[in-house]
Amino acid sequence: MRAHSLATLHAFRVVLASTVKGQTPNLDVDATGSVSTNSPNTSHRAASNHGPLPPPSAQQAEALRVFRSNHCNLLVNACAGSGKTTLILQIAQQNPDTIFLVLTYNKDLASATRVRAKGAGLSNVHVYTMHSYGFHFYSTECQTDQGLKRVFQKLQRPKDATRLPNPGVIVVDEAQDLTPTFKMFLEHVMKDTFSGKSQPPPRLVFLGDPRQEIYEYKDADHRFLTNAPKEEVFGHINSYPWENITLDASNRLTPQMTDFIRNVMLRPHEKGHIFSARPPRLNGKRHLKPLYIIGDPYKEPYEQIQRLRKSGYSPEEILVLAPSIRQTSATPLKALVNQLAAERVPVYIPDFEESGFNDEAARGKISCCTFHQSKGIERRAVIVLDFDGSYPRYQNIEAYTGIPNPIYVAVTRASEELILIQNPKNGPLPTLNTSKLLEYSRFQIKKNSFSNAFADVSDNNGSSTTSTTSPNSDPVEMYPISHLLRVCSSSTEFLERAVSHLHLEPVVPPGICEHNTPQTIKDTHNLRLPISPITGTAAPSLQQYFSGRGLSLLNTVIHAGEPGSFYDLCLSATAGKGIMDTGTLIPAKQHKKLKHLSAKHKRGESLSVSDILFVATIHDTCMNGYNHKLHTIPDTGYNWLTRSHVKDIISTIGEHVPRKGKVKYERLIIGNFASIKTDLYGEKPGIVIQGIPDIVIPDERRIVEVKYGKLRPEHLIQAAMYAAILTENQRGLGGNWSSYVLSVTDGQYVKISPKTERSYRKILQQIVNRAIIQRKLEKEIKSKAVLKDLSDEEFLAQNRKKFSGKIGETVVPDWLGMVPTRAKTEMRLERWKSQGMSLDSTPQESVIRATGEGSF
After folding, report:
1. Is the pLDDT of residue 377 over 50?
2. Would you report the helix, strand and coil content of the chain in percent, each value rounded to 5?
3. How many of the other CB atoms lie within 10 Å of CB of 826?
4. Does pLDDT of 566 surpass 70?
5. Does an H or E element contain 481, and which?
6. Is pLDDT larger for residue 495 or for residue 413?
7. Which of 39, 129, 493, 722 keeps 20 to 30 A from 478, CA to CA?
8. pLDDT over threshold 80, residue 157
9. pLDDT in tens, 724-740
10. Which SMART domains match (predicted)?
11. Environment class of 235 (CB within 10 Å of its CB; exposed 0-12, middle 13-18, buried 19+)
């Protein structure tokens, strides 16, 4: 350990006694893109003022002056909480006769901007996401990236050019999140906007923050923002000069927070400094410095929440952030959520790591989400977990020279209290200026945490580069295919390459569902609780049970926690040490009910739809490790499906399942692929993957994977990999298995077949290349795997070439994203009639009649 680190540790020892003593986060737009009256609540997002606009700050006033006087394009570099959305609306307010077309990265930001525009009385602001703009004016397929690609690759014209907005200004918000696909689509839109019109082209306003570029794995690159004026990027769109504006004064963060960020987190050479626009005192008292705690990660978050609540913070004012919410092992976040739920503290956590943050579901609750999901959110108090050396290893970052952007996003969410928790076993974040911690934070080392607190720290004084290398370990023997795909599915180009090996056949087109199931219910706190994932889990089980084939899910959950159980096999593949004890997840009251249902089922007594929904909730709990829904769904609350809902589910699934013969539901399948290379040089061949297909029909060598919602390309690949496992396991006993994907929501049914005998293995090798060995490729052979790896010169060259080397041809068929025009039930009846069946004679209807009123 170097002298600096020894001096730092000596300083920590000086304060040790005083610090230890006495202490224990869909298209969301109306038909015109204008303000929507049914926008979701955004009261806790960064843009929370729904009334008249505030007077401009000095920096905003300068931006307004420049835009008014210079007749120019604007490039606005805006730090977190600096009021860039406010600036957009202020410019629109200053130019009431000019139409402003605002294009944003995600629907949450779009919704918040619409609400604020409406509150400010602005009728000249039209707000869309990239996808919703494409959906309304080009193609319904544009709800996906594949649809956006098809627009500019096929030079598609607008559906009705007369309906296009006629803006005088085009605003691109969060421009640091642009990808090559978004860039090319934007360019196409901009040209269509003024092509052939007599008036001059619109001016451009680009806003963003390079420090908040967090989607690099999707090929996002902040240089689309910082290099926007370059001729190769957006400089060719019009001939107006570009002016640069900096908003580096945050209205959200306190001076103490920005001091910590600048002096402890950011390196002296790093751009994007941040200051506070707030006074140093509030009601005569100085704001608190960030609280930096080295202590038990399972104990400290709970204790800090207790302290905050005793200090007067309501649950809705507290946000807890972690790198991931869906690890299969036991984690401090899971322990925290479950403890809070057991104590009847309202808590919200998104159902999926890939989904957005649900403002309605978070209302009135302590919110927990990932660093990425927190973007755009603001709370009075924020607790950041894993603020330590584990984060680079979790992200598989071999070496870096600054604080990762997702962590920067996480620490800029708080307006009053920022609490950072370091696990003493991990050491601090590399590049953190530990010598400044005592000066710029309330530093605490909890008892028994000091010995490892600064292990592996060397010279972290902000003046040199520190490398972190992932520890060498034996390769994981078994991977769930869903986890591998989670890493890959963010890349449109990967999905296209994988789908190119498959033959897709549209068996049944999507239809309009006349009986949409509820998305949320009221919980025991009288707050909204999302339940769509539970419905999705229950759907195949409802069809299985009411067609007389038993209830596999009940047989599975009753053995949760037992050695060698279904969940042990599923979770041990990636969990390693610290695997969840699924048996302890189920509260005693619910476990007693589960045993009662199992006994009832064994006696041959009927179960109800509510019983099956309860079992599905237990299953989801055991799979994800969070039991808050079991604590907050009322005993009589498993009643959100009506007879019409169940009839629709049974009919939709049952149409594609044989009435007779062997059918397996929710079975774990495992495949050993010896020919797959899992390292760079092929020295460690072979991989074992597992999956849980919803329905397996052995006699037909067919798999049916059931999805609740619109079908997406990753669903096709997931089903294909399930077929690959069974094909590999039964090689020599028959041909390839085929797979089908079914949307219970709209009824779309797609057949998936391999184009060649080797297609499945080619897809699996592509998945392994991206999910397991991509970082090794980047490090050892300097592979330019993502856009950020390109030099500035290479980046501009790609722009000139229109990303021909980065954006491949669109392979996913356009019918996958088609919007239904006819009712699902109507089309189903036509298919039955074509088979010579009346409604009363169909197998599905006899099953439906069996679900008498007592089943509900």
Report:
1. yes
2. 40, 15, 45
3. 11
4. yes
5. helix 481-488
6. 413
7. 493
8. yes
9. 999 988 765 667 899 99
10. DEXDc (SM00487)
11. middle
What strands, in cross-sheet order, belong to the sheet with 695-697? 502-508, 749-754, 738-743, 702-707, 695-697, 664-665
Quote the radius of gyration of the chain (alpha carbons, Å).
28
Residue with tokens 């919803």: 694
* Region for 107 from its dihedrals, namely left if φ exceeds 0, alpha if ψ lies in -120 to 50, beta otherwise: alpha
- What secondary structure does DSSP assign to 501-527, as a single string? TEEEEEEE---B-SSPPPSEEE-TTSS
Nearest to 743 by CA among 714, 704, 700, 693: 704
Q: How many CB atoms are closer than 10 A to CB 5?
A: 18
Q: If you search the block for the tokens 């014209």, which residue do you land on?
A: 157
Alpha-carbon distance 780 to 498, whole Å? Answer: 25
In which band, very low, low, confident or very high, does the pLDDT at 16 lie, cut at 50, 70 and 90? Answer: very low
Q: Which residues contact 716 (CB under 8 A, 6 or more apart)?
A: 499, 502, 504, 741, 750, 752, 816
Closest C-alpha to 79, from 46, 101, 117? 46
Taking Cα atoms as reference points, which of 63, 56, 124 lies closest to residue 86?
56
The torsion angle over the Cα atoms of residues 395, 400, 406 and 410, rounded to 10 degrees, is: 110
- Token readout for 331 is 């984690």
Cα-based distances in Å from 58 to 61, 63, 207: 5, 9, 17
Is residue 789 over pLDDT 70?
Answer: yes
Question: Stretch 162-176: mean pLDDT, rounded?
Answer: 93
379-384, strands of its sheet edge to edge? 347-348, 366-370, 318-322, 379-384, 414-422, 291-294, 442-445
Q: Which amino acid is at 292?
A: Y
**Stated length of the chain:** 856
Model pLDDT for residues 49-92, shown as the tens digit of each residue: 567 999 999 999 999 999 999 999 999 999 999 999 999 999 99
- How far apart CA 394 and CA 383 sit, in angstroms, is 19
Q: Give the span between the Cα atoms of 475 and 108, in whole angstroms.
A: 39
Helix (H) or strand (E) holding 308: helix 300-310
The residue type at 843: P
Per the model's pLDDT, the better-predicted residue between 856 and 134 turns out to be: 134
Which of these, 491, 478, 488, lies nearest to 678 by C-alpha position? 478
pLDDT tens digits, 466-480: 333 333 444 445 788
Strands (DSSP E) contained in 678-735 are: 685-691, 695-697, 702-707
Q: Which residue(s) pair with 282 in the sheet? A: 285
Q: Which tens digit of pLDDT belongs to each residue from 119-144?
A: 999 999 999 999 999 999 999 999 88
Domains of the chain: 3-22+253-467 (3.40.50.300), 58-250 (3.40.50.300), 528-661+821-855 (no CATH)
Is the pLDDT assigned to residue 23 strictly greater than 90? no
- Show Cβ contacts of residue 202 under 8 Å, excluding neighbours closer than 6 positions: 101, 167, 168, 169, 170, 190, 193, 194, 238
Name the residue among 504, 827, 543, 747 with its Cα closest to residue 657.
543
pTM for the model: 0.88
Contacts of 13 (CB under 8 A, 6+ apart): none
Residues 6+ apart with CB under 8 A from 334: 580, 625, 626
**Residue where the block lists tokens 């370990």:** 473
Show the tokens assigned to 702. Answer: 């067919």
Rounded mean pLDDT of 272-282? Answer: 85
Q: How far is CA 745 from the centre of its chain?
A: 21
Reduced 3-state DSSP string for 111-179: HHHHHHHHHCCCCCEEEEEHHHHHHHHCCHHHHCHHHHHHHHHCCCCCCCHHHCCCCCEEEECCHHHCC
d(CA 575, CA 563): 15
pLDDT at 401: 63
DSSP state of 744: T
Residue 188 has what pLDDT? 95
- By three-state DSSP, how is residue 313 classified? coil
**CA–CA separation, 467 and 490 (whole Å):** 27
